[in-house]
Structure formats: C-alpha cells, structure tokens
Design a protein that fits this description.
2 copies of one chain form a homodimer. Chain A has helices spanning 8-15, 19-26, 34-46, 53-60, 76-91, 105-117, 135-142, 166-179, 195-210, 230-240, 253-266, 268-271, 299-315; strands at residues 65-70, 95-100, 122-125, 147-150, 161-164, 185-189, 220-222, 247-250, 275-279, 293-296, 325-328, 331-333. Chain A is an alpha/beta fold. Chains A and B meet through helix 4, helix 5, strand 2, helix 6 and helix 11 of A and helix 4, helix 5, strand 2, helix 6 and helix 11 of B. The structure holds a DNA duplex. Chains A, B: One of its GO terms (molecular function) is DNA-binding transcription factor activity.
Chain lengths: 336, 336
DNA sequence: AACGTTTTTGGGAACGTTTGCACAGTTTTT
DNA sequence: AAAAACTGTGCAAACGTTCCCAAAAACGTT
C-alpha cells in the first residue's frame, strides 16, 4: 500500500532508541530489559504499529506464506482441502496463496513459477490431469523449495505425500454395486497420467475379481481433461451405453457430476436405470436425481495433514530425508 | 525461497556494468543504448533471471497484487466471480490473493488487515452477512487503499460497486412463481444487513403488488448466518411450513440449496409440492430434485468488471472522485 | 581501585530493487 | 572555439527489516 504507516524507525526516533533495540524489543528477545520492552510495546500499540511483511520477507528470504495449486476451487473436494490447509496454516502464522491450474499443464507451471518467484516458503500441490512432466518441480525442489503433494501425486518424487485410500474407496464402491446386483459395471475415470486413476482402477478390478466378474477393458473410459469439457463426457457416455452397463463407477468429483449431467442430457430414459457410484465430495449429493452412492474423501483432513507435513519441512533445521506417504480412509455413503 | 537465484547485482558484476544500468536495461528505459540492452537481456535470459517481486514491492511500495474477500470459495457464485477476476488480473500482470470470511465479521476484518499489511494494491470485497460496521474499511480507504465492492455492497461508501440487478432478478423469479399459479409465496433470505437482501425483498414485493397479492411479512424469513448452519435453515423451514406456502423464493445460493436440503430432510412429503425459485449459480442445478427455477447472476462478468474498475483506480494518477455502480442483468432459468 | 563479567544498547551492513543526480563523452548550436 | 545540449552510464540513497559486532553501563570480585 502506498500510504504511510509507522515503522520501526519512527518508533526508534520517538523513543530515542535505535532501530535494533526496537526490533529486538518487539520480537521479545532476551537481551532487552523488561523496562525497554514495555516502553516499546506500549508505544507500538499506541501508534498501531504493524510490521511490514515485505521488508521482513526480503531480509529473511522467506515469506511465511505457502502456495497451493489445485485444478479448480469450484470443486468441492478441493475447496474442502483448502479449508483444511487454512485451518492449520493460520494457526502457525502462515498465509496461503491459492492458484488454479484448470487442469492445464501450462497454467500449472505458470502458477508454480509465479508462486516461487514470490518467495513462498513451501508448496502444496495436486497435479493437473494434463501434467506428465514434473521436472520443473524437481528443479524447484532441488533448489530448496519444500513440496508436499496431495491427492494427485507423482510416483517417482521423493517427498511427503498425502492421499486417500483410493484402492479401498474404489473397491468398496464397486463392491457395493455388485452386491446390489449389478454385473456390467463400467468405469469412467480421469486421465491415465494421474496416480489416482491407477489406484482407483486397481480397486475396481479387485472387486470384480473377488466376485468372479470378468474385467472388460472396453468398459473403462478415460477422460483426458478430467471432465472440464462437457463434450468429453458426452462422448464417453455415448461410447459406453451401447455396452449396456447396469452400473457405472466414476472416479472423480467433476466426472461424477458431469457424467450424470451427460446421461440426463443425452439419454434421459436410461439415466435412472443405471446405478451410479462415484467419488464426490459435493455436499449437494443428497439433492441429486438420480441419486447415487458416493465415495467421500477426507478432504479437510487431507489439507490439514499435508500442511502439517509441509510446515515441518519448512521449519526443519536440517534437510529432511525421511518421507511419509499418508493414506487416509474414504467413506462410502450409500444411495438412499 | 531461501535458495540462491541470480540478481541484478550478479548480472551487473558479470557484465561489468552498474546495477542501475542493468535495472534500466531490463525495464527497457530509453536512456540505455540498444547495444547494452541487448547484452543485458541476453545474459538475463541465459541465467534465467527473475526479478525479485519482494524487493520490488518494498522499493515501490506496491505489490502488483490485489486482495479478494468472499464468504466461501466453495460457493459457485463466488468461485465464478474469482475466475472472472483472475482472467482480468493476470492479463494486467496482477496477482490475486483470495481470502474467505466464512460469513464472519471477525474473520473478514482479520483477513482484510492481513492483506493490507501485505501491501496489496487494491481490494475486491463482498461483505460477510454478519458485517455491519465497515469503519475499518473506511480507514483503509482513507489511507489510500482502493476498494471495489461487488455483490454485497454497503450503501454509504463512495467508491465503485458492481452488483447484479437484484430487483429485477427477484421480480422475475417471483413473477414466474405467480404465473405458474402460486399465491402463497414465502421468501427466504439472508441477513437484513446485506444490500442484496433489501434489493431482493423489494423485487419480491413489487411482483406481489403487480399481481395484487397481499404482502405478508410473516412469510419472509431472514437467516443471519446466510445458511452456514443447517440448524438455521431447518428452523426457518419449520416456521414457514405451517403457513402453507405453495411457493418459496430464495435469495441466495447457499440458502437455496440449504433450504431444499432442509425441506427434504424435515418434510420429505411436501418437498415436491412446493415450487421453488432461487438465486443460485450452481452448475449442478439440473441434477437437483426437486427441480427448481433459478436466478443466475453474471458472476464471471461481475468479477471482470469489478477488477477493471479496481485496476483503473489503482493506476489512476490522481485520486478518483467519480464513482460508478455497475448493474448487471441476471438470467432466469425456468424449471423444466 | 582496578579489573573482569554480564547486561543492555547502538551502529551499520545487508536483503534486491528503483531512481535522482552527477558526470564523462559526444554532438550540436552560437 | 567556446558554450550548450544530449547520451549513456555509474554512484548512492532509499524502501523496512534483522542481526553481527562493538560499545557502554552496571555489577562483582579481588
């Protein structure tokens, strides 16, 4: 802001002290006498002194802020994760800067670079569905930027990661469909690049195996853009329907809602006949028609855990070399 | 970030120039010869020089970033506004910092103060439903921080504002209910503090007047917390139902979905008998059951317009004294 | 009384920029 | 040929902090 506000210098001048003394008094350093501290604190209070974070960042070469990259804040899963992140970050006096990749690799990279140049102290990121090449992240990491991945994590990147138990979530959802009598269960999923895609496919397959149902590759449809374009979904639905599925298991929030939308739009007559189970954190799922069985991820908690890990990396005195991948359980909410 | 990156000084040393020359060359100032400029630019490119925005902010006393305060990013209306804001801001080389008030006055004030201390160049804000006292914003504004309000705007604050045509939106929605034969139309709305609450109430009343329907104050229910707590909504529904409304007009995104949810939960047998029309920007509205008529706000555009106004204030050479309140039309999407 | 310790304070450089001013060298004007 | 104007560059201060190092003040110990 361009307007004048009182600085440490002003306080020093007014009190006849040096800036160093004032700075130390404000930070409650042991070297300063109680008397002086009180004096300074009282005056600072009086003139409503606020430390300038920009100057502090420049000097300390850190910003007390962490960057977040998600594909869309409009996605309930991500906005819940963000709330979890904020809850921890604010507690520990970090600020958060949110960026959206809109599932675009280019945008993701642009945002990360921008954040990095703004001296974020650490990065929390869920990869875009387009992202294949994460060398740019490796570079930053190698230069010392702490990174924690969540939800969509790369395989070959040694750092902390936080994910949902995607295998089990998918298994449970698929099993639920099977137990309610479905036998031709399609699987609509995200880009093949994503970790979550692979894990969820495995869960789906495992459930089929358990109930001796043959896995048919043609029943699996990938959406490269994560359902960002409705055309993509309508196409997938169009290809799937001739195979006469009696159930569909869908592996992401946006795809789940998008798929139901596409079904209703293109084939309203069958929309209610196909059982749907899908990952979604929408809090509106109870309003949906047709209703569905949903797999809810512990989004808020995921944000919290990821942030705790990140802050521990940021504040570690020596480089961290032991990394964890935390796996959080999902919750199956059955169709009413 | 704590890791080393090349600075203007490094370039200067390497090229045997002074930092001033390098700085000017990078900023393409007329005083520097083409030759030197080329040299500097080439070298900067080579070492992948990135200006340190922190240092720049400190020196220039501005940050090229604008702050946003909304109540919830999980709200479709707000996330669309944010997308609109970003689309303009990035174009003009501003970065955005998003904060959520969660409809709490305290949180709102905290966030604003935090943003202000981080030297944002301007503020875009939609007030929380709790907010009554905006003196803290007046102070900042008086000190020189440009502020543009959108959606939830205060009455007595001279600056740019961007709102939807709430009166017309409400009128249209209410009229639609009347034309489909409803006569006992309840109105569920936000906190009385909010500008949108008043304007939407007026639109509702005007439609009643036009069709000679008596206005009954007991049919209007206010939700102080904007529907953040489900108890609040269930209470409102409980009080409304004994009055036997055959239609409900709801005045905000969160309230609309929350009300349907409360209806389904507490009185599933009547949920489908009451016609609902409500403000919502949810892109899932087609999936809802019961289905409803929705009033969509031009959220993306609202973000764009507000940002353009804000940036014009930020970049104005002399204090702006002429302010506009832009009013954007809403769209009525009738129930199928 | 002289010295060593401990406690408290101040001076000043540094973080990476931007920019007013001065200055040297070149060109134009008188 | 001297004066004026213009070009291109560098010096140094400033933005608001933090922190190393030194200095001063207060206190103890012989």
């Amino acid at each position: 802001m361009r307007f004048e506000t009182s600085t440490i210098k002003d306080i020093a001048k007014a009190l006849g002290l040096s800036t160093s003394t004032v700075s130390r008094a404000l930070r409650d350093r042991y070297e300063i006498s109680e008397e002086t501290k009180k004096l300074v604190l009282a005056y600072a209070e009086k003139v409503n002194y606020r430390a300038n974070p920009i100057a502090r960042s420049l000097k300390e070469r850190r910003s007390y802020s962490i960057g977040i990259i998600v594909s869309e804040i409009a996605n309930n899963f991500f906005s819940q994760v963000i709330n979890g992140i904020e809850s921890i970050a604010y507690d520990k006096d970090y600020h958060v800067i949110i960026s959206q990749s809109h599932e675009s690799y280019k945008q993701e990279k642009l945002n990360v670079d921008h954040l990095a140049s703004r001296s974020i102290d650490g990065l929390l990121i869920a990869l875009s569905s387009e992202t294949q090449d994460i060398d740019y992240l490796r570079d930053l990491y190698a230069k010392g930027l702490p990174i924690v991945f969540f939800d969509r994590v790369p395989e070959d990147f040694e750092t902390h990661k936080v994910i949902a138990n995607n295998f089990k979530g998918s298994f449970d959802a698929t099993e639920h469909l099977i137990l309610s009598g479905k036998r031709t269960i399609a699987h609509l999923t995200n880009s093949e690049n994503l970790s979550i895609t692979k894990e969820r496919l495995e869960g789906y397959k495992a459930a089929l195996v358990k109930y001796h149902i043959e896995f048919r590759p043609e029943l699996v449809k990938y959406c490269q853009h994560g359902g960002m374009h409705s055309a993509e979904l309508e196409q997938a639905v169009k290809e799937l329907l001739p195979l006469k599925p009696d159930g569909i298991f869908i592996s992401s929030d946006r795809l789940t809602t998008g798929c139901i939308m596409a079904l209703k739009k293109t084939n309203p007559e069958v929309a209610h006949k196909i059982a749907i189970a899908g990952f979604t954190n929408s809090n509106l799922v109870e309003l949906f028609s047709p209703s569905l069985t949903s797999v809810k991820q512990p989004a808020f908690e995921m944000g919290q855990v990821a942030t705790e890990l990140l802050i521990s990396m940021i504040e570690a005195k020596r480089p961290v070399t032991e990394f964890e991948t935390k796996v959080l359980d999902t919750e199956l909410v059955k169709k009413r």
